[in-house]
């Protein structure tokens, strides 16, 4: 008697089939998320002030320290806004806009570096899933061609691989949300800093 072959979510597996034809030239085959891939957030996307100049924050320990605090995902946006307000209030009026612009520039630089790391991790995750999907396909073919009395070990390996694949797929939605959440954070912080530009004492 033939051992029943293992079931597998065909729709999920299809995500890892190689692209071909015109679509391949338009899509990033290493990007599995529904959300559009935005490799880098430009200042114009999230900022209404003047163009930030990296020279304005290089070597500025106060701005670097505050930017690291408000860019960190563990800090709520509300808490970050309070820190921005305190920073703006403490600045000399003649230098406030320049200092706020530098703060935004450094903050966006940190957020972009964080997003780049996450995006690279998602692509590595996708490649591992693609490799596992290929191994599952190969093992399913091998299982169908193996004699019944020799199928137990291969069937167990296949079931284990499918389980791991599916568990990782469930984590993909969370991973895909992270770059978008950082983009939203950059927009919120950019809006807050922009609102303090041009204020009088």
Describe this structure in words.
- The chain is an all-alpha fold and 201 residues long.
- It has one domain.
- The protein has helices at 10-14, 22-26, 43-46, 61-71, 77-90, 93-145, 152-195.
- α4 (61-71) packs across α6 (93-145).
- The N and C termini lie far apart (86 Å).
- Residues 1-26 have low confidence and may be disordered.
- Keywords: Signal.
- Residues 1-25 form the signal peptide.
Write the layout of secondary structure elements.
Elements: H1 10-14, H2 22-26, H3 43-46, H4 61-71, H5 77-90, H6 93-145, H7 152-195
Name the structural class. Answer: mainly alpha
Strand count, sense and barrel status of the largest sheet are: none
Overall geometry comes to rod-shaped
Mean pLDDT: 82
| Number of continuous helical runs | 7
What is the percentage of strand-forming residues? Answer: under 5%
**Low-pLDDT sequence parts:** 1-26
Q: State the separation between the terminal residues, measured CA to CA.
A: 86 Å
Quick summary:
68% of the residues lie in helices and 0% in strands.
Task: Kindly list the characteristics that best describe this protein.
single chain; disordered N terminus; 201 residues
